[in-house]
Amino acid sequence: MKKTILFHPDPRLKTTCAPVINITGDLRKMADDMLETMYDAPGIGLAAPQIGVLQRLIVMDCVKEEDADPAPVIMFNPEITASSQESEIYEEGCLSIPDHYAEVTRPKEVEVKWIDIEGVEQRQGFDGLWSTCVQHEIDHLNGKLFIDYIGVMKRQLITRKMQKLKRELARKKED
Ligand code: NI
Description:
Elements: H1 25-40, E1 45-47, E2 57-60, E3 73-83, E4 87-92, E5 102-107, E6 110-115, E7 121-126, H2 128-141, H3 152-174
Antiparallel strand pairs: 1-2, 2-3, 3-6, 4-5, 6-7
């Protein structure tokens, strides 16, 4: 089932999420719902706090080619275990901050450890768009957004525009 994506500013997007202790049926269902919500948006990554669930769960699929098979990845308790010295700049966006983009500098490659949907520990290196995406999504679990990396002026401007958008959406709901 498709979920509603929270928009910045929202205190739930600024919260450090709790580790997942048991991968229950409910959490597996949640992961499926998150993938459905992400593909529908459309986006390449989604973190549980973005749908108001304050647990350490992210989903991603950074396959861009139209005719390629989907490659959904579900990660519980993802953790960066190593980062490259070399960094890379990507123009990032976020489903919780629609229509706003900014260049963010991050390590070019990272190694990530996580628990998969079967409860098995996985470890893998990521580069390119996958690397940017996994770092961006793990940030969400620590209450951090991509706009926290940019200058204060641009961040305030985006936040004001998002507040205005949220007021307009709330007003529409009332009508
Ligand atoms: Ni995001």
